[in-house]
Design a protein that fits this description.
Elements: H1 2-6, H2 9-65, H3 68-78, E1 84-91, E2 96-99, H4 114-120, H5 131-134, E3 135-140, E4 143-153, E5 172-181, H6 183-231, H7 249-284, E6 288-293, E7 298-301, H8 303-309, H9 317-322, H10 332-339, E8 343-350, E9 356-367, E10 373-382, H11 384-406, E11 410-415, E12 421-424, H12 427-432, H13 436-439, H14 453-462, E13 465-472, E14 478-490, E15 493-502, H15 504-524, H16 526-552, H17 559-587, E16 595-597, H18 599-616, E17 620-624, E18 632-634, H19 636-661, E19 669-676, E20 680-687, H20 717-727, E21 731-736, E22 742-749, H21 751-754
Parallel strand pairs: 17-19
Antiparallel strand pairs: 1-2, 1-5, 3-4, 4-5, 6-7, 6-10, 8-9, 9-10, 11-12, 11-15, 13-14, 14-15, 16-18, 19-20, 20-22, 21-22
Length: 760
């Protein structure tokens, strides 16, 4: 019983509420009593102080006249009041000079006693002090009283005078001590204290009783009903709610409980419904599901299992699935029985119709309530269509490899990040001399010249086509290839498919044509080159003649003149060397090295090589070059051939046009301009010749097509220029400028756009 009470919620509430109420009532009662007692004491002290001041005012006139009889009479009359116990007047030495008790007169009080020392501990004695500091409580023979000391201050009427001896410097002349009994006030305080305690007990008992009644009726009884109703929720009976006619939190709790009970019953019905749904799901799921006991007998199965293997009829799983007489050697069900863990495997067998069937089986243990394994569940996924697809994919892969190896060009499959060669076809061996075992796993950039590898390591990842470029075979032979690059994904890995076409023979034939064109150009410019060389040679001849004369005559050459002659020799030797180097550079066969090229520099070099030809014919060149021109990817030697071919055509057109009308005209001009757009770098070379007839514009770049007289042109210049521009992904177009001559426009892709800043 005690344990039930101790664990009871209502008992905890009553005790906690009762203790709190008791402490609150005690605190409130104590506060009221203490406040009343302090208020009474303060009022008494205030009244005594007022009475002391009144007495001093009454005695003031008598003190001025030094009338002792009048002072005694006033003190005796006032002390006749019942509450006043004594009235004393002390002088500065602590002697009682006046008192309502004659026996005390002329007695001296020790100044170090507590009442006197309150003031005499200061030097000088303060003229004024607070009422609390001047008051004292005392008890004599069980009777309590309050005494207040009131200082008698020196005034103008007391000093100086014919009958008084007080000086002006004295502030206090004495003290008035008045003692009043507290018996009546203490009796009032005691009565008030007893009344408050009685009222507090009554309030506590009434409130505590109300708390008990309220807790029992509005908390304990409703909770008991809720507990009883809660116990009934778990039964199979229909739920009966709790009806509480309360609008407080307990009433809200009962409504929430009734709602919860109805929801629980609804959930219970739903669980039963779901149980049936899960049973139907088990039977209708498209996977093959079966339950196998510890003897490997199929004891439960769904419809899909029966459709594939028929009804078990108590047979073992290996008899049903694989038509075996003994258990499988590797059995996932057996492994589940041994380690109580799920397992998975891929199996093959025969359906009930005798057709091959393939499936993936997942097994999981089935435990009883004690945790002991009693069976295993098999969930089998039919993968027969996937197996058939895999066989078709294998055949397709064989066809892919056959096609891959039969491509005439070399095909590489590279890692998209490292450029490692992942795969290649058979023509790689005949083109590069490497077997697949030798080249697989190596970096594709190793097929380039060593100094070019960093450039191609970047270009292969951003370009779709590169070439022609130089590569090195196993026998260290240089070949020229055009590469086409296609990004792809294999097994979620980024790869690059690079197809390489060997264009060595084609380019060698083209080089021969270009070289022949160069030799023709050099032949045409022989006179100009001779003129360019004659000038420095003539100056050198003059300097040498001067030196010979000076030496033959034993004449001394001044250091300044000798230094000037040496500088002249050095300058003109450099000039002649530059002309010869330029001829050698222009005349050599290009090595087809693609790199960032500044077009303005190519135009300047081509013009310098051809400038003498134009000066001899009075042809001016007007330049409009953009100084901030971006780079392009090309070979500067091959582009210079394009520039010279166009300048030769412009020269011949101007010479033919103006030879008949005005050979010395100032309108014989060639305009060379460069500019760029967001994606292109553009070159324009225009002339003031006769222009290009519309009838021949479509055939202008055909090989061996020329409008010049027989013996004056081969028809290969523009065709070769067209091929060179095409090699670097450029375009070249020709147009006639409304009677102002022909204009050729060449456009190349910007390297800072396609190459992501390589040109920088």
């Amino acid at each position: 019983m005690f344990k039930r009470l101790r664990e009871s919620l209502i008992m905890k509430m009553i005790l906690s509420g009762g203790i709190t109420l008791l402490l609150s009532v005690m605190l409130w009662t104590s506060f009221n009593v203490l406040f009343f007692k302090k208020n009474i004491t303060d009022n008494v002290m205030s009244d005594i102080a007022m009475l002391s001041d009144t007495i001093l005012l009454s005695l003031n006139y008598a003190m001025m006249l030094d009338s002792e009889e009048d002072i005694k009479e006033v003190i005796q009359n006032i002390s006749k009041q019942r509450e006043i116990k004594s009235i004393r007047i002390y002088n500065k030495k602590g002697q009682i000079v006046f008192s309502n008790k004659p026996a005390e007169i002329n007695t001296v009080v020790d100044l170090k006693t507590v009442p006197c020392w309150t003031c005499h501990q200061y030097a000088p004695i303060p003229a004024t002090m607070s009422l609390t500091e001047r008051s004292r409580m005392q008890t004599v023979n069980g009777e309590k009283s309050i005494s207040i000391m009131t200082p008698i201050a020196n005034s103008e009427g007391c000093a100086p005078g014919p009958c008084h001896i007080h000086s002006k410097d004295e502030r206090l002349l004495g003290l008035l001590d008045m003692e009043v009994s507290m018996e009546k006030k203490n009796s009032m305080i005691a009565t008030f204290e007893q009344s408050n305690i009685a009222i507090a007990l009554i309030v506590f008992m009434a409130t505590f009783a109300a708390l008990i009644v309220y807790a029992y009726n509005f908390i304990f009884k409703p909770i008991s009903k809720l507990i009883t109703a809660t116990k009934g929720i778990g039964s199979d009976k229909e739920f009966v709610g709790v009806d509480l006619e309360q609008s407080d939190e307990i009433g809200a709790l009962s409504k929430a409980f009734n709602m919860m009970g109805r929801q629980v019953m609804e959930k219970h019905r739903e669980l039963i419904k779901q149980k049936e749904e899960y049973r139907n799901l088990f039977h209708n799921v498209p996977c093959l599901v079966s339950v196998v006991d510890l003897n490997f007998r199929v004891i439960r199965q769904n419809k899909a299992y029966e459709e594939h293997f028929g009804k078990p009829d108590g047979r073992h799983c290996y008899q049903i699935n694989k038509d075996r007489d003994k258990k499988c050697v590797e059995c996932p069900v057996e492994r589940t029985f041994l380690d109580l863990s799920p397992h998975m495997s891929e199996e093959s067998g025969l359906s009930k119709n005798g057709n091959p069937i393939h499936w993936i089986v997942y097994t999981s243990p089935i435990m009883d309530h004690s945790g002991k394994i009693v069976a295993a569940m098999e969930m089998m996924i039919d993968i027969t269509p996937r197996k058939e697809l895999e066989e078709r994919l294998a055949a397709s892969e064989q066809r892919y490899h056959a096609i891959f190896d039969s491509i005439p060009g070399a095909v590489f499959v590279l890692d998209g990040d490292t450029l490692e060669i992942l795969n290649c076809n058979d023509p790689v061996a005949s083109m590069y001399g490497y077997s697949s075992e030798e080249i697989l796993g190596t970096n594709f950039t190793e097929l380039f010249r060593e100094e070019e590898r960093p450039d191609y390591d970047h270009l292969l990842k951003i370009k779709k086509e590169i070439g022609p470029c130089t590569q090195i075979t196993k026998s260290n032979k240089h070949i020229y290839v055009i590469m086409r690059i296609s990004p792809a994904h294999f097994h979620n890995n980024k790869t690059l498919i690079v197809t390489c076409s060997d264009v060595t023979k084609k380019l060698e034939a083209e080089h021969q044509l270009i070289q022949a064109s160069k030799m023709t150009t050099l032949g045409e410019m022989a006179s100009g080159v001779a003129h360019e060389l004659n000038q420095p040679l003539a100056i050198l001849k003059t300097i040498s003649n001067l030196l010979m004369r000076k030496v033959s005559r034993n004449q001394t050459i001044e250091p300044e003149i000798l230094h000037e002659m040496a500088e002249g020799v050095d300058t003109h030797v450099d000039r002649a060397s530059k002309i010869i180097d330029h001829m050698r550079e222009f005349g050599r066969k290009a090595d087809l090295k693609t790199m960032p090229v500044q077009v303005n520099e190519v135009l300047t070099r081509g013009f310098e090589f051809f400038s003498q030809q134009l000066r001899e014919r009075n042809i001016d060149v007007v330049w409009e070059l953009d100084k901030d021109l971006p780079f392009i990817m090309a070979d500067s030697n091959r582009l210079e051939q394009v520039v010279i071919n166009l300048l030769i055509n412009a020269r011949d057109a101007i010479e033919e046009h103006w030879a008949k009308s005005c050979p010395l005209s100032d309108d014989k001009k060639i305009f060379i301009a460069t500019y760029f757009t967001n994606t292109k770098v553009i070159i324009e070379i225009c002339d003031t010749g006769p222009g290009i007839p519309e009838t021949i514009q479509d055939r202008l770049f055909e090989p061996f097509f020329t409008t010049k007289d027989v013996g004056k042109g081969t028809g290969l210049g523009l065709s070769i220029s067209y091929g060179i521009v095409q090699d670097y992904k450029g375009t070249i177009q020709a147009a006639s400028r409304d009677g102002k001559g022909a204009c050729f426009t060449i456009a190349f892709p910007r390297e800072d756009v396609d190459g992501k800043g390589i040109s920088e």
